[in-house]
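[recover] target loaded
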């Protein structure tokens, strides 16, 4: 039996996917357990595999004759760039191309595997398949994120995420000329009805707000705008989906309309530049910044600013 509390990283996910992640069983087998009444969500037996879980809910999975697969294994070959650590938190500057935790199609070689080699105690923190992970960055996104090193830190950081008390700011290079100097995108986000691996703005989605400010506009070889984006909520692919929704997708992001003529880039031009939070144990204000990686700077250097002579 496995009993655990849903963390912020799984908030809004389908129950069958959550059961699969917790147990290491296939999605099909997880669905069977739900249909058999072997899974409880909150205080009631789960009625459907498609139920959405919410942060703080309790999930209980009961089954016989099968054991969950082992959690992620330590891999010292993974390059983990640590900005800060103490007994409770680890702050990492993730490079583009590195997946945060194992999942379908990526069984190893992730940030979690590298962290386990350096901090084996996180194996007992948080959720089975993603130990220590409080929030994620997409594979193609670089920048700063915090990992919990102790159970107390995990609970406090998950709560801080739920109440929007963690500052997360990004730099994004967006297609087109963003006219307003600053603004806010307030549009709910949910799973795309046509492709469950993609997110989309949906009237029945979960609330999502992204603030933005224009840093610089460029006119050649194409019109693009450098934005500073702040997350008031933390939905999957939020910046990418919101910028696509206002017709200014992230340069280099093929999934959300960011591949256009004029500029070719091999990943989304998106960087988590700043992270701020209260230390989950001491209460001290913590602030971390990640400089733009070389590949993002190199692309900016090829662009002609709008105000250039």
């Amino acid at each position: 039996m496995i009993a655990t509390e849903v963390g912020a990283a799984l908030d809004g996910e389908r129950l069958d996917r959550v059961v699969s992640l917790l147990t290491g069983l296939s999605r099909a087998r997880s669905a069977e357990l739900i249909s058999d009444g072997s899974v409880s969500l909150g205080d009631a037996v789960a009625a459907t595999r498609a139920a959405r879980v919410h942060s703080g809910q309790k999930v209980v999975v009961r089954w016989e004759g099968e054991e969950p697969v082992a959690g992620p294994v330590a891999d010292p070959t993974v390059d983990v760039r640590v900005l800060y650590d103490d007994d409770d938190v680890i702050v990492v500057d993730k490079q583009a191309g590195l997946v945060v935790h194992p999942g379908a199609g990526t069984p190893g070689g992730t940030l979690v595997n590298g962290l386990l080699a350096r901090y084996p105690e996180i194996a007992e923190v948080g959720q089975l398949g993603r130990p220590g992970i409080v929030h994620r960055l997409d594979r193609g996104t670089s920048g700063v994120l915090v990992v919990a090193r102790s159970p107390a830190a995990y609970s406090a950081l998950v709560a801080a995420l739920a109440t929007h008390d963690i500052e997360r700011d990004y730099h994004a290079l967006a297609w087109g000329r963003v006219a307003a100097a600053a603004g806010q995108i307030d549009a709910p986000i949910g799973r795309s009805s046509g492709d469950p691996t993609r997110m989309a703005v949906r009237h029945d989605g979960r609330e999502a707000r992204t603030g933005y400010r224009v840093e610089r506009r460029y006119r050649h070889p194409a019109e693009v705008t450098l934005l500073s984006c702040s997350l008031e909520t933390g939905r999957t692919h939020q910046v990418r989906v919101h910028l696509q929704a206002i017709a200014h997708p992230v340069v280099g992001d093929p999934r959300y309309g960011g591949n256009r003529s004029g500029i070719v880039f091999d990943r989304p031009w998106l960087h988590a530049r700043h992270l701020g939070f209260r230390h989950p144990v001491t209460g001290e204000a913590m602030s971390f910044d990640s400089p733009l990686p070389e590949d993002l700077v190199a692309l900016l250097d090829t662009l002609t600013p709008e105000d250039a002579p």
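[recover] notes: The longest strand covers residues 209-220.
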